[in-house]
Amino acid sequence: MSPAYDAAVWLPNLVWANLMRRRARSLFTAIGVALGVGLIVALLSISAGVTRAVNNVIHLGGADFGLFQGQVTQLTNSLLPDALASEVARQPGVQESARIKLFVTTVDGVSSVLVFGLDPTEFPERQFVITRGSRPQDNQVLLGDKVAAQLGRGPGDTIRIGNVALRVAGVFHSGNSFEDGGVVAPLALVQTLAGRPGEVTSIAVIIRPGASSSQVAARLQQRFPGLVAVTDPGQAIQVDTTSRLLISAGWVFSVVALLVGGIGVTNTMAMSVMERSQEIGVLRAIGWPNRRVAGMILTEAVGICLLALAIGLALGYVAAQALVAQGALSTLVSPVFGLDVFAWGLAFSLGVGLLGAIYPVWRAIRLNPIEALRRE
């Protein structure tokens, strides 16, 4: 049997036995790293949720981009004067503008339902396809097909937005789950319900054919100081300061967690090397080269960090949901857990494992086999 075959057979068994030798220590080290992984997962999933929410808002009704008040704590806190929309519509490169009031409230006893305040003569409401009923008149409302199914309501029924009873004129479908999960009501009514008459959350803009969105947006920002033209979801942090603070602080804490986790793995693996000096001496004496000893230590560190990844993913999921549920971010935001979030969590955990294994590996390969065998 060749030495290479011996190593292939015995290395996994050695790694497993060494990790199980001090189970509590391995577990606590993994939990320490998992806290950092969980922070990364929560941070990135919320960041992705913010991006998705902003993308839905700025393209509401087929708009090219949206205008918001700058430096507000949340997207829904943006307040712009009603009359500004007509001024925007007269600017070079703008084909059409529309006023949008976003209001999160209780509808028929269901909390945190998004209500869109729209003017039926403006383009966002015109693009809705009415699948049941008809377009609204006076103080009637439209239900997106998703929220209609959730509430169990349809044309001719009455719903209550807050304390106001309103008749449902029809059910619409837009193809955008964000819109289809909301209620559309007359702009003036939603402004009154929100206690903000004459103010809107955003002004949606459609540019003229051949015009550049970025150039038109830049001109509007220059013409109306304090206004933020969001043409790309990545610009969300220009508007939502809560998101910006959370993301900035999250990255700082993540770097700290990386260092602390690396120190924890270093300590655990260094203690393991010291406790197993005779074992390592025997392996060196029977011909194990430095790279194989180093591989064993690295594999043990990676094993701890993969356990940390599993725990961290669960912690991150729970933390992200809790942050959003408790109102730490805009109620428009829900965490998005994609493959990129998993990839970053994996990269973080493996990075901690490799960082933490550097010193123990150096110590192990410098161990003199004869001196190690003499130790008790």
Observed structural traits:
55% helix, alpha+beta, two-stranded antiparallel sheet, 2 domains, 376 residues
Description:
- The structure is a single chain.
- The protein is of the alpha+beta class and 376 residues long.
- It folds into 2 domains: 3-53 and 243-374, no CATH class; 65-230, no CATH class.
- It is built from 13 helices and 12 strands.
- Strands 1, 3, 4, 5, 6, 7, 8, 9, 11 and 12 form a 10-stranded mixed sheet that branches. It has a two-stranded antiparallel ribbon with strand order 2-10.
- α2 (23-58) crosses α11 and α11 runs antiparallel to α12.
- It is elongated.
- The chain starts with a helix and ends with a helix.
- The model is unreliable at 1-9 (pLDDT under 50).
Indicate how many domains the architecture comprises. Answer: 2
Share of β-strand residues: 15-25%
Number of helices: 13
**Helix and strand string, N-terminal first?**
HHEEHEEHEEHEEHEHEEHEHHHHH
Largest β-sheet summary:
10 strands, mixed
- The CA-CA distance between the termini, in Å, is 31 Å
Q: Low-confidence parts, pLDDT < 50 over ≥5 residues?
A: 1-9
What is the overall silhouette? elongated
The Rg value, from CA coordinates, equals: 29 Å
Q: Tell me roughly what share of residues is in helical segments.
A: 55-70%
Mean pLDDT: 81
Structural class designation: alpha+beta
Overall strand count: 12
